[in-house]
Design a protein that fits this description.
It is a single chain. This protein is an alpha/beta fold and 229 residues long. The chain is 29% helix and 27% strand. Strands 8-7-6-10-9-11 form a six-stranded parallel beta sheet, with helices on both faces. Helix 2 packs parallel to helix 3. The radius of gyration is 20 Å and the shape is elongated. The protein starts with a strand and ends with a helix.
C-alpha cells in the first residue's frame, strides 16, 4: 500500500504526493493509502475532488519501537552521500550526520541544496521501506564540534581485528541511543582513533573484507536492526 509522509495533519495531500496519487497511481476516491506525520502512521481513505486530494483517517497503525541509531558518516565524494541517505534510511538509521574527517576528499559546500536533495531521497526510501518516519539528515563542521552524548559509540575501524559488534553490544534496549561512525574513503586517521578513544568509543571490526564507505554502514545497521527483535 502506498505510503506518504506529510508535514502536518491537515487532511489534504498536496504537491508531488498529490500528483503521484492522481497521475501516477491513478487512484480514486475511496482508495486507501497510509499517511504518516509526527512519527505516526494511519490507514486513510482518499477523497479526490477538483484535482485536490483529501484523506480521512480509518485507523492508526502501530510501530515496533527500536533503538535510536545515529549514523555519523565521514564526508564522502559526490554522489555517495545520496547513496548513503537512501540505503541508511532503508536499513533503519534514525539520523544521518555527514562530517568532514581528515581523509575526506570532498569539502563542505552547497549544503542547503544537498540537504534538500538528500531529504527527498530519504523520504522516498522511507516510503519504500514502510518506515514510520524519515531520518533527520544534517552536516556537521567537524568531529570536535559535535555533541557526543550517546549511550554507546561504535566506530568501524579496519585496524580492529577481533572486537565485533556483538562483543560491543550483545543486547539492545528499546530506548538506547547508539552512534555508529563510518570513516570516509581512506578510513580513519590515527588522530581520529585517539579522539574516539577519548570519547569512550568501542572500535569494532565489520569483518575481514574492506567495505566501501557508502556501503559499510549497511553491515552494522543490519545487525543493529535484527538485535531490536
Amino acid at each position: 500500500m502506498q505510503r506518504y509522509f506529510l508535514s502536518s495533519n491537515d487532511r489534504e495531500i498536496t504537491g508531488s504526493d498529490a500528483h503521484h496519487i492522481m497521475h501516477v497511481m491513478r487512484m480514486s476516491s475511496g482508495d486507501n493509502v497510509i499517511v504518516c506525520f509526527d512519527k505516526r502512521c494511519f490507514l486513510s481513505a482518499l477523497t479526490i475532488e477538483n484535482q485536490r486530494v483529501f484523506y480521512d483517517v480509518v485507523e492508526e497503525l502501530h510501530d515496533e519501537k527500536g533503538a535510536h541509531i545515529t549514523l555519523i558518516q565521514g564526508l564522502p565524494k559526490h554522489p555517495k552521500g545520496e547513496t548513503i541517505s537512501k540505503y541508511a534510511t532503508m536499513f533503519g538509521a534514525s539520523e544521518i550526520i555527514f562530517v568532514p574527517m581528515q581523509r575526506s576528499i570532498a569539502k563542505l559546500d552547497n549544503e542547503a541544496n544537498k540537504l534538500k536533495r538528500m531529504h527527498v531521497i530519504a523520504k522516498e526510501a522511507a516510503e519504500l521501506a514502510h518506515r514510520f518516519d524519515v531520518p533527520q539528515i544534517s552536516f556537521a563542521a567537524s568531529l570536535k564540534q559535535m555533541n557526543w552524548n550517546y549511550d554507546i559509540l561504535l566506530v568501524a575501524d579496519e585496524n580492529e581485528k577481533t572486537k565485533t559488534l556483538y562483543d560491543a553490544l550483545p543486547k539492545i534496549s528499546e530506548h538506547i541511543k547508539i552512534a555508529l561512525v563510518i570513516g570516509p574513503e581512506g578510513g580513519l586517521s590515527d588522530a581520529e582513533r585517539t579522539f574516539f578513544d577519548q570519547q569512550g568509543a568501542h572500535m569494532v571490526s565489520l569483518g575481514k573484507l574492506i567495505l566501501p564507505t557508502e556501503l559499510a554502514s549497511l553491515y552494522a545497521l543490519t545487525y543493529l536492526s535484527l538485535k531490536n527483535f
